[in-house]
Design brief:
single chain, 601 residues, alpha/beta, Spore Coat Polysaccharide Biosynthesis Protein SpsA, Chain A, TIM Barrel, 3 domains, seven-stranded mixed sheet, seven-stranded parallel sheet, elongated
Length: 601
Amino acid sequence: MPTLPSYVIVTPARNEAEFIELTLQSVVSQSVRPLRWVIVSDGSTDGTDEIVARYSAEHPWIKLVRTPERAGRNFASKVFAFNAGYGRLKDLDYQVIVSLDADISFDGDYFQFLIMKLAADPLLGVTGTPFQELSGRSYNYRFVSIEHVSGACQIFRRECFEAIGGYTPVTGGSIDHIAVISSRMKGWKTRTYTEKVCIHHREMGTAQQNALGAKFRYGIKDYAIGNHPVWELFRAGYQMVQPPLCLGGLALGAGYMWAMLRRFDRPVPQQLITFNRQEQMRRLMRFFGLSGTRPNLTMPKASDSGQPTRILVATSKSTPDRGILSDIAQKKSRVADVPGDFVGSLIVNADDWGRNIETTDRILECITAGTVSSTSAMVFMEDSERGANLARGRAVDCGLHLNFTTPFTARGCPLRLREHQERVGHYLRRNRLAQTVYHPGLASSFKYVAATQIDEFERIFGGASRRFDGHHHMHLCANVLFGRLLPAGTIVRKNFSFRPHEKGRINWLYRQAIDRVLAKRYRITDFFFSLPPLEPQSRIDEIFSLARRSFVELETHPANPEEYRFLTGGEILRRTSGVQIAREFALAPKAKALYMENLVG
């Protein structure tokens, strides 16, 4: 094994008798041991000192430092204790310093693995691994940046630690987070390696408070280090689907808002706040596949030459968009090559099949005329049984149109289903934001209403639905998505596609986030539009043009007289300009869909 940089460890500990022996055993068992490990007992009264002293007697490189008990207790105390241990290392020649909590454990080559990462990359300043609690809880690195290094165990290159001036004694916390941000601000890389984990034996943030109180405190800390308000909004939204469900995210957001309204002092320099916010907004843009700006894509006409079609995707700021997608004649564009034989599809899908006789018959007329590709069927409605028989006899492509808000009208609808639907419907209709908030008290009702409709569709149509959408688009509500009530791998309708600047930024970012969640578990189209409004004519023409190179779903309701006339009077066929209306709801193979997704992103 090549010679590794030497390292030292500092561990502040206060009343850690319950867990510190697990940490001691982990370090003593390391394949590469430290030059010195200084454990600072910060006024411990529970037997921590005796446990450490016993190990120190057996291992001379373990040193116990006792500090008197402080009257006040806050996060700055941890820094003062760390610095007391750090001061005992001045006489040593080392290259790496480790800040280690006293309530974690890890495997025998943990430090060897991480120090080898530092040795391999001279620009790597801070490294570590994810922690995992005994409950299984950990950071989700789909949402947490791999550049974040947990404070449970932070391994610094000595030059990096000295460059940032060590830890900042902030009474409200986030000292480890500030250190990592400061390191990047100084030009160092920071990186978590997920190949290994350390086990955190005390639930994060509950040393002095319950889990809900900890979330509130995290919100205050987020404000203190200058988190961007938009970032914090999404952070609170994500926490709402983590334990404690809903309440955790609300507590986090409340803590941030409380600190903002009280105008808490921020104990970090403005330079760090600016740097932190810039990083956060760049990460949001990357998460939504925007590379810093909203992506603008214009689909050209199909190439007749067989050569790759050139699609320009603008990446610089532009003038306000005048079409569904902006003009590509802008500065700083990137060029993507799309195979000349890559074709899209215009899928015209009619909703509410089976709702009543008139609606079913109008949709069937449009399908027969070749102006509707497929339909979404409702179950437990007055015409559901007849509609299912028609669909089976006429080979109509039907998916399930989940209904959480409109009362079921079929005579044989189970009473229990009506009761559960009334509960969830009352909640979803209460206000416009209800569908964005996960309601743990209604989780079983949502599950029952969805599962019963899925089973009924299979019964009357003679097979499981391979496609799902929702009445009033409630299939996208938080309880359905985060409860994973729809079968994975099926086709699920995405959010409406809007012109850039047509919706507010927060609304737009929320819709993008939901579509990202959908794309990870289900199959979705590239674009989704409603047929109305039919004016101006250029809107419909642009939608049809997109279908030359994208998979576009166009939602329609033939029960609406204006839409019915457009579909049956020949107008839609005149306007498609050679774009074929699909005969069924079919998407590209997975490889093509991913290719298209990467192109747009």
